[in-house]
Amino acid sequence: MIGDTMSGIIDSYIPVAIFLAVGLIMPPMTMFMVKQLSPRSKAASKYTTYESGSVPTGTARIQFNVEYYLYAIAFVLFDIEVLFLYPWATVYKGHGITSIAVIEMFVFIFILLFGYVYLWKKEALTWVK
Predict the structure, then answer these.
(1) What phi and psi values does residue 51 have, to the nearest 5 degrees?
(2) How far is CA 42 from CA 16, 46, 50, 81, in A?
(3) pLDDT tens-place string over residues 69-81
(4) 65 near 129, Cβ under 8 Å?
(5) pTM over 0.70, yes/no
(6) pLDDT, tens digit, for every residue of 92-116?
(7) Which stretches of the chain are DSSP H helices?
(8) Using CA atoms, how far apart are residues 88 and 101, in angstroms rounded to an integer?
């Protein structure tokens, strides 16, 4: 009886072990294959910076306004909203939406709107020239 249970537990971990082994073996194997099969050029022009076919001018070390990063972070945070709203809508589309699910989604949207209002009040959404 106990042996059958242990066998079932071990059998359930076999797909995980296979997935882990493939996940650990594939990246080094792929990098090795790319290194062996790709053509290599030692020309000096190979190591220059490419700017739309033009010869690069100036240094690559320029400073960006920190507000650009704030735009990027706000975009990522609120873009994740879609990742939560779309599956929620597709799951409840065919099964009938319960009142609890609607309340949960209103709470989620309220938190997101609170974040929008916070960014708006901090003037993080105004573009600086």
Answers:
(1) -125, 80
(2) 43, 7, 16, 47
(3) 777 878 887 788 7
(4) no
(5) no
(6) 766 666 777 778 788 888 888 888 8
(7) 2-37, 66-93, 99-121
(8) 9
